Amino acid sequence: RLPAVAVSACLAGERCTYKASSNLIEGYGELAVLCRPVLVCPEVMGGLATPRDPAEIQGNKVVSCRGTDVTCEYERGAAEALRLAQEAGCAFALLKENSPSCGCGHVYDGTFSHTLVEGDGITARAFKREGIATFGESQIDALIEAIHAERL
Ligand code: SF4
């Protein structure tokens, strides 16, 4: 049985970003035949509309560019994405870098000035806390290697 991998839905081509576009990545087709992708978009799952205002993490809150506190939606979406990933038995996740939900390693600093700082998005934190091995899209080759290694 192929391993289940949670994937940020926008990386798989879904037009679910805040501007209703996708972030389809080149290696997705190769990954998709090696695993059972479990597509998650935590922002949509948390009840936010598409398109929507961009948001960034500010301290322990997530705030939109208009100043709306969307922390609850982000937390609800993270919980729902985690539930789906765990139900499917995902040991790995491929997450969209820099997103306040999915970002792993770096996120924007909360000033809406395109400034990255070290840190994880709300969903990436939840996945890591539960022991899911998370990879950003620039690490897709490492993820594919890890899947091959697990199947040996
Ligand atoms: Fe993509 Fe994640 Fe943002 Fe949804 S929440 S659009 S999956 S980066």
UniProtKB/TrEMBL annotation:
> What single Pfam family name could you report for this chain, choosing any that match?
2-thiour_desulf
Q: Which domain of life is it from?
A: Bacteria
Which InterPro entries is this protein grouped with?
2-thiour_desulf
Query: Which PANTHER family has this protein been placed in?
Result: HYPOTHETICAL CYTOSOLIC PROTEIN, INNER MEMBRANE PROTEIN
Recorded protein name is: Uncharacterized conserved protein
Phylogenetic lineage: Bacteria, Bacillati, Actinomycetota, Coriobacteriia, Eggerthellales
